[in-house]
Amino acid sequence: MERTKQRIVVIGGSSGIGLASAIRLRSTGAEVIATGRDLAKLQAATAGHGIETAAFDAGDRKALEQFFTGIHGFDHLVLALSGGHGAGTLADLDLADLRTGFEEKFWPQVETAQAAAPHLRPGGSITFITAISARIARPGIAGLGAINGAIEAMVGSLARELKPSRVNAVSPGVVDTPWWDRFPADFKAGYFREQQETLPVGRVGRADEVAHAVQFLVENGYVTGTVIECDGGLHLV
Ligand SMILES: NC(=O)c1ccc[n+]([C@@H]2O[C@H](COP(=O)([O-])OP(=O)(O)OC[C@H]3O[C@@H](n4cnc5c(N)ncnc54)[C@H](OP(=O)(O)O)[C@@H]3O)[C@@H](O)[C@H]2O)c1
Q1: Which of 9, 14, 15, 191, when mutated, tests ligand 1's pocket best, judged by the most ligand atoms within 8 Å of its CB?
Q2: Please, are residues 127 and 135 in contact by the beta-carbon 8 Å criterion?
Q3: CB distance 108 to ligand 1 below 6 Å
Q4: Is there a domain that residue 1 lies in?
Q5: How sure is the predictor about 131, in pLDDT bands with cuts at 50, 70 and 90?
Q6: Nearest-CA neighbor of 118 among 73, 84, 62, 157?
Q7: Structural domain tally of the chain?
Q8: Domain range for residue 22?
Q9: Which atom of ligand 1 sits closest to the CA of residue 148?
Q10: What is the pLDDT, as a whole number, of residue 128?
């Protein structure tokens, strides 16, 4: 029987942008597998949505190979796993911290893409989630910009290498997800207030708004090698 349902893997699908993408893509009728490291968190987050789950560290090559071999082909890959380390001005930048930032986000995203690519069905796609830090100039974010810029720099070449599969990225600005819970509540509130006053759209983003951009890239077969800014205009200010 011919397959009609698209099969989509969302790496980092237990929280924030990845979870919103998994739920949104599932609501279109696609089969969705969401992954994360923490199985209990993954199952609690996806409960009731008809989303399959798989728990492993996307930095673990053996686990990646086992996972992609085990699912017997899929159509689209969304890479939403997060990092967080690597901020600071050059004078204060802790280079070990910046290396950790690359280990947390750049390497697992690239490693996953490499392990996944042979299993992508024709007509498939890869969507990286980067960050607008790659495209704006602000004291203190050069390291974060380097991590995300390194991923964005790969998008065009990978789109040519993996043709006819498509390769794109979504570059979010400040989005209200559990990622921000690592900071004290008053810092987060103050930072979000500042964004509200500065951003052209007058507010921080919602995870589902970034998921909407992901859905566009997954569904539109004529877009490849592209980075979409979904940042409320942060790149303008
Ligand atoms: N939120 C923002 O303001 C913002 C802004 C710009 C860019 N971004 C980018 O958007 C992406 C999603 O961010 P978010 O805010 O949605 O983050 P989040 O709420 O912290 O969610 C991160 C997800 O990634 C998973 N994860 C992390 N490391 C993993 C690993 N090694 N292997 C497998 N899964 C892993 C987490 O699950 P486990 O904990 O179970 O592993 C979780 O499901 C990230 O790349 C982030 O840098 C976010």
Answers
A1: 15
A2: no
A3: yes
A4: no
A5: very high
A6: 73
A7: 1
A8: 7-236
A9: 47
A10: 98
Is 81's C-beta closer than 6 angstroms to any atom of ligand 1?
A: yes
Instruction: Find out whether the beta carbon of 181 lies less than 6 Å from any atom of ligand 1.
Output: no
Rounded distance between C-alpha atoms, residue 36 and residue 58, angstroms? 8
State pLDDT tens for residues 184-218. 999 999 999 999 999 999 999 999 999 999 999 99
C-alpha angle 129-135-140 in degrees, rounded to nearest 5: 100
Amino acid at 67: F
Pocket flag, ligand 1, residue 179 (CB < 6 Å):
yes
C-beta atoms surrounding 66 within 10 Å? 14
Residue 71 falls inside a structural domain: yes
**pTM of the full structure:** 0.97
Domain containing residue 145: CATH number? 3.40.50.720
Ligand 1 site, residue 232, Cβ cutoff 6 A: no
Residue with tokens 């990092």: 83
Which residue's C-alpha comes closest to atom 19 of ligand 1?
16
